[in-house]
Amino acid sequence: MKVSPKILTTSLEHSNHGARSLNQIGSLGESVDGYKDIPLDDFTPRKPSVPVRTNNHEAQKTEFVKDEGMSWFVTGLFVVGVLAGGGIVALPTAMVQAGLGVGLVFTVLLTATFTYTSHVLGKSWAILQQRWPHLYCTQHCRKPYPEIGYRALGHGMKTLVSVSINITQFGIAVVYLVLSAKNIHDFLNALFGLNISFCIVAIILALALLPVLLLKSPQDFWGAVVAAMFTTSLAVILIIIGSAFDFGDCVIEREYPPPLITNYFLALGTFIFAFGGHSAFPTIQHDMKKPEEWTKSSILAFTMIAVMYTPVCVVGYLTYGNSLRESIINSLQTTWLQQSVNVLITLHCILALTIIFNVCNQEAEEIFHVPHHFCRKRVFVRGAMMAAVLFVAESVPNFGPLLDLFGGSTVALTSIVFPCLFYIYLLAGDKMTNTRKTTLSDPSIQTSKIPKEHRIQEEGGIWPSILQVIANVDKPTLLFCAFIIVFGLVGGAIATWSAIRQISYTRFVPPCYIPASLFEAQSAPHASESFHSRHNSLNCCGAGQNISRYGPVNEHCSRPNYNFYSS
Known about the structure:
By secondary structure, this protein is mainly alpha-helical. The protein has helices spanning about 15-25, 70-100, 100-130, 135, 145-155, 155-190, 200-210, 220-250, 260-275, 280-285, 295-320, 335-365, 375-395, 400-410, 410-440, 465-470, 475-505, 515-520, 555, and strands spanning about 5-10, 60-65, 455, 460-465.
């Protein structure tokens, strides 16, 4: 799909040389590839977001504005709608795993970290649009995040980013499909007494979602995803009310698990998953009316997410203690509140899947050369993607360990490591490229004196070495980004190992397509109850997980699991 952006041109200094440079790219008195001219004097000069250092040359800055696109405020709500659902139900469990103090530190630390990494990822995309406008402004870019990796570190990194994004988005889609199917299963059981297998519900849900996923771009369904943000906000209010109702009955026998190092890292994996949606961010930013306002959207989104997450985590921790399991929804004992939250979170997940699938689908369509317009080939590719997600969901029907696994692995890479890594390399390359252009245009400098070690990209620009990054990036930015990169690599690796251990042993659940009876004799001693076969949707509270406001334990409560936090 072609886009029709305008170039709003501002400069630090108005000069004849600046006007000549602008005329060369067609932004004064000409129209190039759908760009519309706006006279330079109609705009107030603004400080560029990425300074360009030159010798006796005016640093030019262009702001790209589309005729159509989302505002920064709507984009912020859009990001909240994509991120908040899975985190709301899983983070109270992570708070119990980490303890209240450590959990609050995680919340504050990761809110700041992910806001910053979202900011620098947006700045990286802005650098690409400034340096290569003919590639990233005048036409629809299907793979903006891999392009950022390519411009920062070359072809190999572009491939690695594509693989990481595909795995991340695929994993998030699996988690949300499993969570949605689980919630629908519990809803039918609680209100109508129907014990339809989770496995069947997942298949029906996947088939129902497929027509919606044939839409092309976030612009086609942004209203639905913003609506998801409001459903999550209402769910937060109801969770707090429901937990307050249960507090008096549950707090008397509330207990907390002993501290375990593995639980801290599992909690970290959950927190990373809950805050990390960066693999979709460049695609969303690309659909903004003013992509350079992405930082405003990031600050708005992560502030709102922190405001949503924190009270739910604290109230769940104080009320239920170690009786919490995969989802706080099942611990709410007021049935109408529990199922209202169930419906709201399920609606959020289903609506959010529209954007989550979009990144995977666009990657697959690029590989198979699917046209941008609607066609049978698109139906086939997107149908195959849904089938693959469904197969994994049926193979590992336990969303808690899945969430920890993807949070500690590919989400940590795409949301923590890659944004900072690419940003410092693009900053260094941008500075070196401008220095080289200035040198080439200076007749007093001999061409033979120009450094030859620069790795020149095909369309202009330089891939710097690590030593050149150290030399050309300001030290505060370099050190801060390096700290975040190390934190993401080390913390993510340990969280991934802990999650794999959970999936394979401590909380193993048999696949849907293999009879559970085959595993009974050899099941792990701490194996989690298979939620797709249970008959009760309420996890009772108290140390014995046997406190219910509604009568006999064996009638209203699910089977206790005293080893849930013993992994």
